[in-house]
Amino acid sequence: MEDKMTCCQPEGCRRKHREPEEYEALLKRLNRIEGQVRGVRGMVEKEAYCTDILTQVSAIQSALNAFSRELLGAHIRTCVADGVRRGEVELIDELVHTVEKMMK
Fold first, then answer.
1. How many CB atoms lie within 10 A of CB 81?
2. Between 50-75 and 90-102, two packed helices, what is the crossing angle to 10 degrees?
3. Distances (CA, A) of 80 to 45, 62, 101, 104
4. Distance separating alpha carbons of residues 60 and 40, to the nearest angstrom
5. Percent of residues in the chain assigned helix, strand, coil, to nearest 5
6. Which of 7, 22, 59, 66 can pair with 16 through a Cys bridge, CB separation 3.0 to 4.6 Å?
7. Using CA of residue 49, residue 50, residue 53, residue 54, what is the dihedral sign?
8. For residue 5, is it left (φ>0), alpha (ψ between -120 and 50) or beta?
9. pLDDT of residue 2
10. CA–CA distance, 21 with 28 (Å, rounded to integer)
């Protein structure tokens, strides 16, 4: 039986079951980010001062980076590690490519 934490990748299937704690934590972060974006929109609509808006945009970027780090860590601990244990070493190249894209 397949471990619930592993990624499913055979023949194009690109899904991953997340434990409830991980799922809720990711959604909580995304909801917070969504609220921040709505707040910036409101600032633009209310003609807020440029640097005040930019400060909030910087906070959103930091929040997105934190979300990405959390998701990447979980991906390495589950999908990549499990795949390598199954002999799917091509997942290492995929991980390197993903990290390269994130660092642009």
1. 14
2. 170
3. 44, 25, 17, 22
4. 9
5. 75, 5, 20
6. 7
7. negative
8. alpha
9. 44
10. 10
What single letter denotes the amino acid at residue 19? E
Q: Rounded to whole angstroms, how far apart are CA atoms 33 and 37?
A: 6
Whether residue 61 has pLDDT greater than 90: yes
Contact predicate 91/84, CB 8 Å: yes
Exposed e or buried b per residue across 12-48, where buried means at least 16 C-beta atoms within 10 angstroms of its C-beta: eeeeeebeeebeebeeebeeebeebeeebeebeeeee
Residue type, 90: E
Position 14 scores a pLDDT of 80
CB 56 within 8 A of CB 44: no
Token pair of 57, please?
A: 């945009």
Indicate the residue type of 98.
Answer: T
What is the per-residue pLDDT for 15? 87
